[in-house]
Design a protein that fits this description.
This protein is of the alpha/beta class. The protein contains twelve helices and 20 strands. It folds into two domains: 186 residues, 3-Layer(aba) Sandwich (Carbamate kinase), CATH 3.40.1160; 140 residues, VC0802-like, CATH 3.30.2130.
């Protein structure tokens, strides 16, 4: 007798999947974890299969990194001086525990509310990454264990920010990487949507702590949000937005402190319709920018080697210009754990290296920024009126920026918000 063909996952699936991600401040203590558990239970009871991705509790990741640096300093003072920077493999072993604590506690809290739940580490749920420790990229997601547990009626809790390299090593995805875990899982599971919970109710036209006039943005397209994230906005990690864009995952940014089920504001991040132009505008700031200038050597080897070192240290190249043998780089160090060693290496590698630190980048992101020279002119004028002197101005299709003194960033953001967003 022939057995019937096994039904595929999509044929047997009756409940839509929602992926919810909770950031560090939403799970900062056991009481807050309890409110998260309440929201998860309510979502499950509303008829969804729920996958929850958690960050480490509160400032746990920072605290663990500080411990690592303390351990490093201790060894450097006694006898043979050790490395200045802790080995990145061990950093991954260390910081990945933060999310593990949060996932287990949340699973316990959900089970205490009468629902079945199970927690998984990143490697257990098939998040495969490259081997770049501390800043790994997801290559593939094989969420079979999650699918099996959902089919069994479980709520699945996943430790964000981590995966396993193809060499079977534990890796982490770069600071803020739990967002990426959530969106990548939503894509792999074909979830109906991905909800990102934090302590703010969505995305604003500027950081409200710096710009009191900043307003809430109810809707945004992927490209605008990706530029915002890359220019320093702390809303959603840039790679997460890139995953969302590629897979077309609808992302809702919400506050976990709003009442469950109550009327609340949110930002929907979605694809633009045909012929639709990006409408949202926002001002962003990056507080840790470095301007590097040096001379390329005759063999053209210094620049590629420098870029390699910069990427390894977790710095991001915001802008690169080479004219003859003169190289100019604008770098963001805001995601770099510590780049003192790299700084010294660049000094040896690059001829006539001049580094300027203590700089910031202020950007206007959104539609219309590449309409002729006018946006840049207005940017310079607005900064001038606020007595902020730009070291360098940059413009691209969706973004105009200025490198300024970090101490003048707040004034710069206010001036550009008044000029471009209003
Ligand atoms: N806990 C990690 C961090 O603080 C990852 C995250 O929060 O998304 O960067
Ligand atoms: Mg965190």
């Amino acid at each position: 007798m022939l057995l019937p063909e096994p039904k595929s996952e999509s044929e047997t699936r009756t409940r839509p999947i929602v992926v919810q991600k909770y950031g560090g401040s939403s799970v900062a203590d056991v009481e807050k974890l309890g409110s998260v558990a309440d929201r998860v239970v309510a979502t499950r009871r509303a008829g969804y299969d729920v996958v929850v991705v958690v960050s480490a509790m509160g400032k746990t990741t920072d605290a663990l990194l500080e411990l690592a640096h303390q351990a490093c300093r201790a060894s450097a003072s006694g006898g043979t001086p050790g490395a200045i920077e802790p080995p990145r493999r061990e950093l991954d072993m260390l910081v990945s525990t933060g999310e593990r604590v949060a996932m287990a506690l949340l699973s316990i809290a959900i089970q205490a509310r009468g629902l079945s739940a199970i927690s998984f580490t990143g490697s257990q749920c098939g998040i495969i990454t490259n081997d770049r420790h501390f800043d790994a990229r997801i290559i593939e997601v094989r969420p079979h264990r999650i699918e099996d547990e959902l089919a069994r009626g479980m709520v699945v809790i996943v430790a964000g920010y981590q995966g396993m390299s193809y060499k079977r090593e534990i890796t982490t995805l770069g600071r803020g990487g739990s967002d990426t875990t959530a969106v990548a899982l939503a894509a792999a599971l074909q979830a109906e949507r991905c909800e990102i919970y934090s302590d703010v109710d969505g995305v604003y036209s500027a950081d409200p702590r710096a710009v009191p006039d900043a307003h809430h943005l109810p809707e945004l397209d992927y490209a605008t949000l990706q530029h915002m994230a890359e220019s320093g906005a702390k809303v959603l990690c840039a790679q997460a937005v890139e995953w969302a864009r590629r897979a077309g995952v609808a992302v809702y940014a919400r506050s976990s402190f709003d009442p469950v089920g109550g009327p609340a504001r949110e930002t929907l991040v979605r694809k633009l319709g045909p012929g639709e132009e990006p409408r949202a505008r926002a001002v962003t700031a990056d507080r840790a920018v470095v301007l590097a200038r040096f001379r390329e050597d005759a063999g053209g080897r210094a620049l590629p080697a420098a870029i390699e070192k910069i990427a390894r240290a977790g710095l991001r190249v915001v802008h690169l210009r080479q004219a003859g043998d003169a190289v100019e780089l604008v770098l963001s160090a805001s995601a770099a754990p510590d780049w003192s060693e790299t700084r010294a290496e660049l000094g040896k590698l690059c001829r006539e290296l001049a580094l300027e630190e203590g700089l910031g980048l202020v950007s206007v992101v959104g539609g219309g920024m590449a309409d002729g020279p006018e946006p840049l002119r207005r940017l310079r004028r607005a900064l001038g009126h606020a007595a902020v002197e730009p070291r360098l101005c940059l413009a691209s299709a969706l973004c105009a920026s200025a490198v300024v003194d970090a101490a003048r960033l707040v004034e710069a953001q206010r001036a550009l918000h008044a000029e471009f967003v209003g």
